[in-house]
Description:
Layout: E1 2-10, E2 16-25, E3 30-34, H1 41-49, E4 56-61, E5 64-65, E6 76-79, H2 91-101, H3 106-119, H4 135-147, E7 153-157, H5 165-182, E8 185-190, H6 193-199, E9 202-207, E10 210-215, H7 217-222, H8 227-232, E11 237-246, E12 251-256, E13 261-266, E14 275-280, E15 286-287, E16 296-307, E17 311-318, E18 321-329, E19 342-347, E20 352-355
Parallel strand pairs: 3-8, 3-9, 6-7, 7-8, 13-20
Antiparallel strand pairs: 1-2, 1-4, 4-5, 9-10, 11-12, 11-14, 12-13, 14-20, 15-19, 16-17, 16-19, 17-18
Helix pairs in contact: 2-3, 2-4, 3-4
Amino acid sequence: MVRFVNVQKSYDGRTLVVKNLNLDIAKGEFVTMLGPSGSGKTTTLLMLAGFEPATDGEIFLNGQPINRMPPHKRGIGMVFQNYALFPHMTVNENLAFPLQVRRLDKAEIESRVKTVLEMVELPGFGNRRPSQLSGGQQQRIAVARALVFDPDLVLMDEPLGALDKQLREQMQYEIRHLHERLGITVVYVTHDQAEALTMSDRIAVFNDGVVQQLSTPAELYERPQNSFVAQFIGENNRLPGVVETIAGNGSCTVRLDSGEVVNASAVKVAKKGDRTLLSLRPERVKIDPTTNGTANIIDGSIEELIYLGDHVRTRLKVAGQSDFIVKIPNNTERPALKEGMKVKIGWAPEDCRALDDV
């Protein structure tokens, strides 16, 4: 439905903030553009919306080139972080506005406004003004306004950034369920990794104007393709070292800078002698492992224990680094640990990914 072909964007004619972007989005998909500030994700959304021109390349919507098409003719719904509701209008008037611009008759407008208010579970709020609504209610109305004219595509730019944590999480599920129920295509921009993992069919991770990886949430978390993605998505332990051997089955051995030799999956290393960073998720590490599958076992010492209810966040000194994290589920099998204690830690080789050294 959406296609970016060799799209680039520069604001000053010298520095590219989006570099050679090639990205396809299917009809009905929920695709999130995720990345740190300045990574190019919002600029990409603004080019798709028509608020910024592409410097090079072409953007297609339903097979039609839209680079020279004005925003109001693209038929795209838009939800902003600050809601962008008209303060002097009632909720009904805010929702009717996009339909009046499209010259729909009064009966059709009233029917659609009623329908979208029910859709976002605010049927009795039509006569209120935005100032009389809570932040979550205003955000629901902003979503309703983006949907009221039945667009095929809805763009959302950090739409939940102004909400508190509990309401933000509730709205994540509501937007996701709306998407599933209506079958619309959504392109969503956020810098919040948990939000992206919760809501998306696929996630495009941006950094320095380039998509580092485009994958499903599970693929992105379980199998990051480079060190940036591994570090940006979820919590991640990094152990630097040098590749000693690479086997034909996709595994390798790595000598850590602290001297230990461990086995890993050879994801982004080419040859013996390459520098690498091992990527290892905190929940995949066991303390004092006693079961099979933990072929990598090295020494550690406990620096800090933080009780977080469902798990205990354990910071250790491992392989010369004092910020190695292990998440221990808070259950009856939780080992009795104390700060300063010497322990063995272990993990399965397939849970440890040898990536580029960046």
